[in-house]
Amino acid sequence: MEILYEDNHIIIVNKAAGEIVQGDKTGDEPLVETLKRFIKERDNKPGQVFMGVVHRLDRPVSGVVVFAKTSKALSRLNAMFASGDMHKTYWAVTRNKPAKESDTLTGYITSVERNNKSYVWAEPRPGAKEARLSYRLIASGERYSLLEVNLMTGRKHQIRVQLSSIGCPVKGDLKYGDKRSNPDGSISLHARRIHFIHPVSKIEIDVTAPVPQYDNLWRALEDAATQA
Questions:
Q1: Catalytic annotation on 58?
Q2: Helix or strand run (H / E) with residue 74
Q3: What is the DSSP track for 148-177?
Q4: Catalytic site residue from 43, 58, 173, 223
Q5: Could you tell me the pTM of the whole model?
Q6: What is the CA radius of gyration of the chain?
Q7: Which terminus of the chain has fewer CB atoms gathered within 10 Å of its CB, N or C?
């Protein structure tokens, strides 16, 4: 577990692919409980440790996750997420190169609980929610491209399904059209950066999460993007 930022009110970590943020039917220990135990032991805290879940990342996704260490911070961070005052940037390794080097994608997403999958439509339909994101190509290789993605809405599996809809499935994402899984079960989608005004101290918080260092492709594309 890599802590990227911490103060009395919030803690920001770089989640590894495969970790769950909050408990689910698998019964695996979620990151929120791991953090509680870590802080209790590190700080020798008596009693229960407060740790509020502000937002989630899908299990196979890596990167920035924010937790609240106080109830005051939790309520304010929740309000900031709801109002769009938390600015998140993602990096996605895609199997194909998009036709346009940058674009804004708008669609309408429906989700099916039965197969835990989302679908995007070009036109509005009953039950569908508008989904918007922008992307730009920041590096590319022989078979894979690296896109920087900014969400304007937060729909279930939004980046995965919208990039797949333009013929650029996220590497390793069999659910949304890639050909092969990644060896570790991850998909090559990374919550790269989060930027917001601290809900209590009002200082600017701008945190970047390193890409998975065990993955040679991630490191090579990161190097290409930073040198461009």
A1: yes
A2: helix 71-83
A3: EEEESS--TTHHHHHHHHTT-PBTT-GGGT
A4: 58
A5: 0.93
A6: 18
A7: C
